[in-house]
């Protein structure tokens, strides 16, 4: 008799594909938030599988802070070309220029939190009724409470204390006009699962994730990439180090780790041995104990 | 504390072949649930240094003397402020043998709906009993919910053994009492372990103080308990989620039915029937991006093509020709009510079952259950938040279902309020 048994990566994959297909079936105009980070890369890979041999029935939406790693942009553009995808860019710079958001000031200024307004504007303008993202529950404590299908009111806000119960695999995506949903197909994956899956599937990744030489400086215990977008204090010394990134986001708040990990196997070894979470290198979460919860309530991803 | 769970050299190949176990825990403020989860996470090296730093700082700020591991699980500001778990939180850890997903739920009666939610996807439930207090109302409630939601395995962890001098008789008495109660429930597989979560005895490491106990430690049991039979591998069920029509030259006539197998297995060449149309055909191919399969089984997500062109769309179900589910418009469910707004007798709701959606009417509420005593209440059957009741439902179109006992996917429904769109109830088809 056949052994009817799936290993955990296959089971997680099956669950995520199921969620992606529910999105295609329940919503009229869904989009996939794509940052060029590993989580959104995995979601896109799962979407390719979910609808094969048809094309992915979603638009990709990149909320662009303007403070990007060039490698991430190049990777994004190549991927879009390779799979014939549709990409929309919601620009934080434009939102600043037209006055919908105001740039933060000071040394720790970051455009990370500013992404919420252009995101909500893009959702409204393009009439997206669902925005999927690569957020995972293991990332952060407020995200541990998140549903697969997460309701947003007409202002794009999340009400964590009044979430719809989510049972078995029955997802309720019903909503009123003007409301939308955020959907997180890889909710149940951990950082380790993501890397193991990338390894199993041999998914091509942006070079930023692998060890490379880069000009960096230290601020509050985190090593950041030196760039034209960051104003350095006189005490901050820029030096060249061998680093890689565990997450890829806005360049001004994404910390690097010293690492010699040059292959996927090296990265898996490193993640297994690591004593800090990947968000330990993210300055945006360190602002307060409930920083993520507050941003999410306002409509952040 | 020993950390022999993780070897220094991580074996990536072995990691690729781990099983996934989902378990739920339910508990209230001081029965040691958070300590137990903290212990499992800590001892399996799943708490990271920056998380530890953050909760140490938060504990210190709150003037607490010890590091409050509950701050790790209570993620929302309101939960941390009030020191309670309100919602289901999902936690993840793994050992070299298995990956675990914990659905951590509050235990108080006012959070029955959260317990039901956490239990709906669990293979296993850990029920904590305070050795000093023995079996209490909450134990009955948690066990009943586990049985109602058909969680295949239950571990009764008798905690705080340190506070009863590691006494074997106390443990045995609780085991006897629990068994007597559990005989009234539909529980298939139950295990008892004496532990002290605070000191870690029998959680990860075997305890010398409990040398009279010869069974496995909690983690060993979690790692080895047989979960291969938890899914129905007999009755083949394929609810169609989405129809794939590529509109590409290479796949001009391709018409594939995408879905996740809810039970059993399907092979190329199998004679199948499509519901509700009743038309028969044969499976032509089972398509995935990684190549076609000869056979697919639950819970795989695949795309099926058939030999004949028959009309199938979302909400339909493909089954084997000689093994069809029940096809009815009227049936009974055990309903857990999940909304502040009470159930309206003879009220109309939207019903969701697998990928199918239709309207339904509540025909009759038969009885409500006192979930602490399991007594049936028939004189006052107003059904409100957290109530569990047996009701008859009539749907506008036939549903194809199995009893919940037979299949947790094809036997479950939710009710949605037409005006608010909120999920108001979860139902298990009797």
What are the key terms here?
heterodimer, A: 301 residues, alpha/beta, Rossmann fold, 6-stranded mixed sheet, 4-stranded antiparallel β-barrel, 8 helices, 17% strand, globular, B: 430 residues, alpha+beta, Elongation Factor Tu (Ef-tu), domain 3, 7-stranded antiparallel sheet, 19% helix
Q: What is the gist of this entry?
A:
The complex is a heterodimer of chains A (301) and B (430). Chain A is of the alpha/beta class and 301 residues long.
Helices and strands, with pairings:
The complex is a heterodimer of chains A (301) and B (430).
Chain A: H1 8-26, E1 30-33, H2 38-51, E2 59-64, H3 70-82, E3 86-91, H4 92-97, H5 116-125, E4 130-132, E5 149-152, E6 180-183, H6 191-201, E7 212-219, E8 222-225, E9 239-245, E10 255-258, H7 264-273, H8 291-298
Parallel strand pairs in A: 1-2, 1-4, 2-3, 4-6
Antiparallel strand pairs in A: 5-6, 7-8, 7-9, 8-10, 9-10
Helix pairs in contact in A: 1-2, 6-7
Chain B: H1 12-15, E1 19-27, H2 33-43, H3 49-61, H4 70-73, H5 77-82, E2 89-94, E3 98-106, H6 112-120, E4 124-130, H7 137-148, E5 153-159, H8 168-182, E6 189-194, H9 218-224, E7 237-239, E8 242-244, E9 256-260, E10 265-267, E11 271-275, E12 280-287, E13 295-297, E14 301-306, E15 317-320, E16 326-337, E17 348-353, E18 356-370, E19 375-377, E20 388-401, E21 412-416, E22 423-429
Parallel strand pairs in B: 1-3, 1-4, 4-5, 5-6
Antiparallel strand pairs in B: 2-3, 7-15, 8-9, 9-14, 10-13, 11-12, 11-15, 12-14, 16-20, 16-22, 17-18, 17-21, 18-19, 18-20, 21-22
Largest β-sheet summary of chain B = 7 strands, antiparallel
**CATH superfamily (homologous) name of the largest domain in chain B:** P-loop containing nucleotide triphosphate hydrolases
Q: How many angstroms separate the termini of chain A?
A: 45 Å
Strand percentage of chain A, roughly? 15-25%
General shape of chain B: globular
């Amino acid at each position: 008799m056949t052994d009817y048994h799936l290993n955990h990566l296959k089971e997680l994959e099956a669950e995520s594909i199921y969620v992606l297909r529910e999105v295609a079936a329940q919503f009229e105009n869904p989009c996939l938030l794509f940052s060029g980070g590993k989580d959104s890369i995995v979601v896109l890979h799962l979407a390719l599988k979910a609808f094969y041999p048809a094309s992915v029935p979603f638009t990709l939406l990149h909320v662009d802070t303007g403070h990007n790693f060039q490698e991430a942009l190049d990777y994004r553009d190549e991927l879009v070309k390779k799979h014939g995808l549709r990409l929309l860019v919601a620009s934080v710079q434009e939102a600043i220029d037209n006055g919908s958001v105001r740039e933060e000031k000071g040394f720790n200024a970051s455009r990370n939190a500013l992404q919420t307004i252009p995101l909500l504007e893009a959702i409204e303008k393009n009439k997206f009724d669902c925005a999927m993202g690569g957020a995972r529950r293991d990332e952060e404590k407020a995200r541990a409470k998140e549903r697969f299908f997460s309701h947003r009111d007409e202002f794009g806000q999340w009400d964590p204390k009044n979430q719809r119960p989510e049972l078995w695999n029955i997802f309720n995506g019903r909503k009123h006009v003007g409301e939308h949903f955020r959907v997180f197909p890889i909710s149940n994956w951990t950082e380790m699962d993501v890397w193991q899956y990338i390894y199993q599937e041999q998914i091509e990744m942006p070079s930023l994730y692998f060890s490379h030489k880069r000009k960096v400086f230290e601020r509050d215990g985190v090593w950041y990439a030196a760039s034209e977008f960051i104003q350095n204090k006189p005490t901050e010394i820029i030096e060249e180090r061998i680093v890689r990134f565990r997450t890829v986001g806005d360049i001004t708040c994404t910390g690097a780790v010293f690492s010699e990990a040059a292959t996927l196997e090296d990265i898996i070894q490193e993640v297994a041995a690591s004593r800090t979470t990947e968000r330990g290198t993210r300055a945006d979460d360190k602002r307060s104990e409930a920083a993520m919860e507050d941003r999410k309530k306002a409509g952040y991803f | 504390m020993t950390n022999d769970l993780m070897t220094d050299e991580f074996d990536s190949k072995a990691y690729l072949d781990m099983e996934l176990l989902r378990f739920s825990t339910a508990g209230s403020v001081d029965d040691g649930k958070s300590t137990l989860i903290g212990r499992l996470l800590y001892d399996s090296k799943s708490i990271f240094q920056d998380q530890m730093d953050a909760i140490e700082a938060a504990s210190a700020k709150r003037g607490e003397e010890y590091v409050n591991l509950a701050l790790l699980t209570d993620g929302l500001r309101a939960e941390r402020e009030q020191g309670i778990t309100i919602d289901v939180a999902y936690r993840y850890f793994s050992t070299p043998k298995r990956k675990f997903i914990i659905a951590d739920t509050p235990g108080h009666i006012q959070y029955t709906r959260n317990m039901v939610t956490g239990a709906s996807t669990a293979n296993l439930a850990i029920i904590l009993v305070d050795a000093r207090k023995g079996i209490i109302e909450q134990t009955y409630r948690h066990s009943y919910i586990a049985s109602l939601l058909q969680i295949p395995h239950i571990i009764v962890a008798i905690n705080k053994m340190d506070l009863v001098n590691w006494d074997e008789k106390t443990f045995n008495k609780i085991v006897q009492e629990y068994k007597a109660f559990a005989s009234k429930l539909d529980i298939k597989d139950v295990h008892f372990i004496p532990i002290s979560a605070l000191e870690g005895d029998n959680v990860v490491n075997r305890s010398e103080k409990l040398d009279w106990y010869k069974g496995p430690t909690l983690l060993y049991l979690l790692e080895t308990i047989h979960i291969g039979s938890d899914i129905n591998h007999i009755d083949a069920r394929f609810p169609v989620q989405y129809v794939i029509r590529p509109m590409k030259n290479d796949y001009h006539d391709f018409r594939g039915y995408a879905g996740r197998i809810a039970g059993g297995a399907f092979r190329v060449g199998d004679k199948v029937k499509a519901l509700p149309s009743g038309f028969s055909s044969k499976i032509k191919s089972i398509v995935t991006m990684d190549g076609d399969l000869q056979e697919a089984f639950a819970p795989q997500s695949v795309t099926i093509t058939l030999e004949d062109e028959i009309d199938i769309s979302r909400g339909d179900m493909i089954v084997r020709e000689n093994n069809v589910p029940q096809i009815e418009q009227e049936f009974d469910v055990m309903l857990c009510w999940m909304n502040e707004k009470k159930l309206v007798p003879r009220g109309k709701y939207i019903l969701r079952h697998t990928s199918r959606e239709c309207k339904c009417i509540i025909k009759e509420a038969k009885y409500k259950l006192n979930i602490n005593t399991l007594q049936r209440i028939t004189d006052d059957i107003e059904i409100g938040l957290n109530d569990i009741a047996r009701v008859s439902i009539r749907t506008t179109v036939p549903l194809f279902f199995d009893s919940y006992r037979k299949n947790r996917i094809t036997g479950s429904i939710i009710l949605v309020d037409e005006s608010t769109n909120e999920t108001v109830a979860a139902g298990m088809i009797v």
